[in-house]
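Example with several molecule types.
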Amino acid sequence: MKLLLLLALAGFMHAALSFTEGGQLASQGTALAFGFLIVSAVLAGRVFQDVRLPRLTGYLVSGIVVGPQVLGLLSQPMVDSLSLVNGVAIGLIALSAGVEIHLPTMRPLLRVLLSITGLAVGGTIVLLAAGCLALRSSLPFLASLPLAQAVMVSVVLGVVMVAQSPAVVVALRQETAAEGIVIRTVLAVVVLADLVVIVLFAITSSVAKAAFGAEGALGSAIGMLAWKVFGSAAVGAVIGALIGAFLRRIQGGAALFILTACVIVAEVGARLELDPLLTLLVAGLLVRNVTGQHEALAGAIGASALPVYALFFAVAGARIHLSHGIQVLVPLVILWLIRGVGLTGGTWLAARVVQGPREVSRYAGWGLIPQAGLALALATLFSDLFPEYGSQAAAVTVGLVALNEIVGPVLFRAALGRSGEVAKLVSPP
Amino acid sequence: MAPLPDRTDNAADRRLIASAVVAVVLLAPALGLSMWRPPMMPSAELQRTTGADAEPPTAQDGGVDGGEGDAANQDVADQGLLREPLVPPLPPVTPTPELSPVLDDKIPRAEPEPLAPRDRPGAVVRIVLGLVVLLALAYLSGHHTVQRVEERLGVSQVITAGFPFVLLGIVARTPAVGVLTDDVLAQLNPLLRLGLGWIGFMVGFRFDSRLLERLVPRTVVVAALLTVIPFTVILAATGGMLALVERLPEQLSNPVFMRDAIILGTAGSMTAYSAMRLVSSGDGGADRKEAARGVLRLEELAGIVGLAFIAAYFRAQAPDASWRLPGTGWLLLTLGLGMAAGLFMYLLLRIVSGRNELIAVVLGAIIFTAGFAGAVRLSPVVVCFVMGLLLTNAPGLPREDLTAILVRLERPLYFLFLLIVGALWKVGEPRGWGLMLVFVVSRLAGKALAVRLARVRRQDGLSRRERRVLAVAPVGPLALAIVINAQLLYPGGSISMIVTAVLGGAIVTEIIVQLSRRWWAAADEQPR
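Resulting structure tokens for the full complex:
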């Protein structure tokens, strides 16, 4: 029945596109794409759930299949027109992630968190950079560079490729209703690692630019980095305080207020070069740990959770360019293996070093594998910073993200199942 | 898929039959009109009368019936294979700048330009101040002192009806605030279409066929009077005003003029369902309340029929369209699309599990259907109405869960809709405000006349209070949806005046309703 409904939906979409000659719709196409992606993602998610795969992967795959790369039911302009919706979705996901982090509960895990971030994430950056260097002959854009410059670019690529996805972790937690030390550790690590990756990217990319002879690159990059991290955190703190005040003082309307805040951060924040993920993550953290209004916040945004996730991941799927990865398949697979082994092995080692819980050492590493928005954003930034070979490098980074976007949730879902933290739920919450 | 429940009381059958009756009601005007042949206007004359934004119909866009025609169709028409169009195709329009973001795909959707570092502190302060103002407004609106002042000024219902969001939209669009920029509005346009679809869906979903079963003839008569008379009075009054403003006294058969007057008449004959709270529930109140509810539902049905008719028969020329149908074909397509979407949503709702999935599916299906209707230039309100009508009368759905979700999401979505409507509103249109005055006065006069006629020999079954409520009635969301939908279908020329008339009229009428209610209460308290 679900497959039949998916077919019927595709038929509806095809009929709508046939109205205009050339199949190009004007702005009405945005609404059509919006609704089409939500319904097709929910249906695909149910199909994937039936075969014991994460619904999240279903959302992604539905986006890939209906998107411009495969069936073409959504054109590239249609997908692009959903960027604000996507920005708002990132904001809501970041708020949810922030609310999930209860600092007093996390305090006993601090050593484990720092150890995993340092050893697993830091170590994997080194491994990926080394891997890129070793694969120089298969990566034409590196082969043409002198060794010193190739090393610098490899380090930047290592930082880009290690990025994780808090959005996937939050969505999988919602989907599986998982609760326990593994999911809490993974969530805290991916949030912390995101911060580390943003900072490291700014530092390494500016050092690399300086190595290429760009004047003033280092100084301006440090200024930009300080603004991005501290500015986002400061604005996030103010927004968190306002959301907390709203939830405490005013009955009703909280969902609209939060949505407005997310729209403003997504739109105006981009012009201010703030990081929307960091901004609303801090806001969520503040609401949870200072104002104590986390239940009210969860209630206000809870109803929108599923449509937001479905849309966000389906749009992410529709943006995946499969052809990019195919061009560099062999180095891509090798780098994917390096990243996977680095993160899982690094987590195991890091947890053992600080004598962390056994479940964390065995299963938490799998939660670091999924990738999504941040990695793609960094890949785009990389292309902008190094335009002479950025697009070739983006083929590798975007291909890696695509692979991890599809396979990562499946692996993490299985790991969560084995850890025993998945609630005994067959149907969605 | 879960098995259908065994229903031995044939209630489901009755509901489906009632739905079919409603469908026939929707079709009846089309069948009647298909037999009527209005005088055709020569294209040159049509061109001259339709304003500056009209362009001469060419071989490519001078179409058949529905408006989306080409030279080949003209040849077929010349050979007598196709009948002359019922309503001449409307000329293509250039969208007004206010509407461009939600109509054009020509706005560049590039990454927003980053602000220079020196401008950042100011921008951050504006964001924070904006959110603080929102917070303060929300706090103040719930404060008892403010509520007392609102009551005293007679604007509390204006606030409750969400009109401050219209104001917020106007403010947020101003360049000084710069939040609802063209690019943001372009990307928020699914919410506008969702709002339209949602209003239509809710009207359909509340149109339970049991209501039809309980209707007594006198309720139908009252509803017919309350719809037809205000429609006629508004049509005549605003038509006269439009003819004067547009200098079109000699062009009464001009399709643009006819369309505008019909839109105003249809929107004006609607009554907000919130009027029900003014109806007493004292002695015999339940029956009277039921009668008043029936009247309002039938009014809504008439509004939907009117909008379906406008969208199907008054179609603007669209050279890029590959679907070419006569007006009745578009009407049938409206019904068919609504029913197909309703069936699709019914099957979806049968397989979903859990509240969150239900919300996702309901939102997704309504946006998709509204987007589809918009893509083929039909009315999302009407298509989603048919969808809602089908669902509310279909067996085996989790009705209580569905109703709870719909009610919970209704107000936030409506407020977002009003916010975007405010941002798109061309407020500085003096002719629109003049038309608004005529609209409000003629609407009140039409409603009062209809109530008086219905009262003849006291056959209406309503008390004095209910008659007052129906005579001085607020303009509801459906009226706003009708006019905004019309604005999306015909985004240029005189339509911005119509929007000002109905939107401004809705706000002014809310204030009049409040004031008259207080005046009546004072009058009733005085010793006779």
